[in-house]
């Protein structure tokens, strides 16, 4: 009896450790779980905070190729689950018939879907927020206050601080620009084949209080898949934010994904 692999892809400002609770949950249900970091990502949050220069040159096409090679390396096609940038990558891969199913959680926008202007002060140094990155820095760091205000905006300050200390790391300004978070043109690699009728099932998930990837952006992506005969589902979580995979409500999201996989015949073990 073979086990179905699940590949988890994290997004900007989070380390691969951010999937630790999901890994335990999915493994307990019999799935083989993998959390490969971005190319050059240090093994720990502490190491990444001290030395993350290797991620400064990360581009979207590099991430796409990195995870395509990983997903194609399994004897059994994996389920691909991504958050934020990882959600964009998950859509790109399933649209290219890589993987047997995909889940995109608070996904960075695909194709021509835009993002609203970034929240005031998110990219700039702001002493009132503890000193974030300046616009000349190749890496963008969040202060604990910024993380609470923009990323985990519905949890308590105490919980936000705990999440920040455990999971939050700098991210590439170049990558954020490619995603349309700055004033630069979006990367031509931020695409997904929304018309592919032969791909596996896709689930889009949004948090309706998300300030970084608003629910409207995920709904816009869902509409782009409207003409495809392939399965595309949308789940909106009320009162949830961009931190919905790591905050105190993570289990409800993870269990919904497990239930959705089961409904579509995507079992942990294959006969």
Task: List its traits.
271 residues, alpha/beta, six-stranded parallel sheet, globular, single chain
Task: Explain what you see.
The chain starts with a strand and ends with a strand. Helix 1 packs across helix 9 and helix 5 crosses helix 6 (157-167). It contains nine helices and ten strands. It is globular, with a radius of gyration of 17 Å. It has a six-stranded parallel sheet with strand order 3-2-4-5-8-9, with helices on both faces. A two-stranded antiparallel ribbon has the order 1-10. A two-stranded antiparallel sheet has the order 6-7. It has helices at residues 20-28, 45-50, 60-71, 85-95, 144-151, 157-167, 173-178, 215-224, 250-263, and strands spanning 2-3, 5-9, 32-34, 79-83, 101-105, 139-140, 171-172, 202-207, 232-237, 269-270. 32% of the residues lie in helices and 14% in strands. Residues 124-133 have low confidence and may be disordered. The protein is of the alpha/beta class.
Most strands sheet: 6 strands, parallel
The global form is globular
Arrangement of strands in the largest sheet: 3-2-4-5-8-9
User: What is the total tally of β strands?
Assistant: 10
End-to-end distance, in Å? 5 Å
The helix/strand order is: EEHEHHEHEEHHEHEHEHE
Question: What's the alpha carbon Rg, rounded to whole Å?
Answer: 17 Å
Report the helical percentage: 25-40%
Uncertain parts: 124-133
Structural class: alpha/beta
- With helices defined by DSSP (H or I, 4 residues minimum), what is the helix count? 9
- Percentage beta strand: 5-15%
Global mean pLDDT: 90
Please summarize what this structure is.
This protein is of the alpha/beta class.
């Amino acid at each position: 009896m073979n086990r179905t692999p699940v590949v988890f892809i994290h997004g900007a400002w989070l380390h691969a450790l951010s999937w630790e609770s999901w890994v335990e949950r999915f493994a307990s249900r019999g799935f083989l779980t993998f959390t490969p970091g971005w190319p050059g990502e240090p093994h720990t949050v502490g190491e990444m905070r001290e030395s993350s220069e290797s991620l400064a040159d990360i581009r979207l096409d590099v991430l796409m190729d990195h995870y395509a090679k990983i997903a194609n390396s399994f004897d059994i096609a994996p389920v691909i689950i991504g958050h934020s940038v990882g959600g964009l990558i998950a859509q790109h891969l399933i649209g290219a018939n890589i993987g047997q199913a995909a889940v995109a959680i608070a996904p960075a926008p695909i194709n021509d879907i835009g993002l609203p202007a970034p929240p005031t002060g998110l990219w700039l140094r702001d002493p009132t927020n503890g000193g974030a990155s300046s616009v000349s820095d190749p890496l963008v760091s969040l202060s604990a206050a910024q993380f609470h205000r923009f990323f985990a905006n519905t949890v308590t300050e105490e919980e936000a601080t705990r999440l920040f200390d455990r999971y939050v790391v700098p991210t590439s300004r170049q990558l954020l620009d490619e995603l349309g978070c700055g004033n630069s043109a979006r990367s031509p690699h931020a695409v997904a084949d929304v018309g592919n009728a032969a791909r596996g099932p896709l689930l889009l998930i949004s948090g309706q209080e998300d300030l970084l990837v608003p629910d409207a952006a995920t709904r816009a992506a869902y509409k782009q898949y409207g003409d495809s005969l392939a399965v595309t589902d949308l789940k909106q979580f009320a009162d949830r934010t961009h931190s919905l995979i790591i905050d105190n409500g993570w289990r409800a999201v993870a269990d919904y994904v497990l239930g959705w996989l089961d409904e579509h015949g995507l079992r942990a073990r294959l006969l």
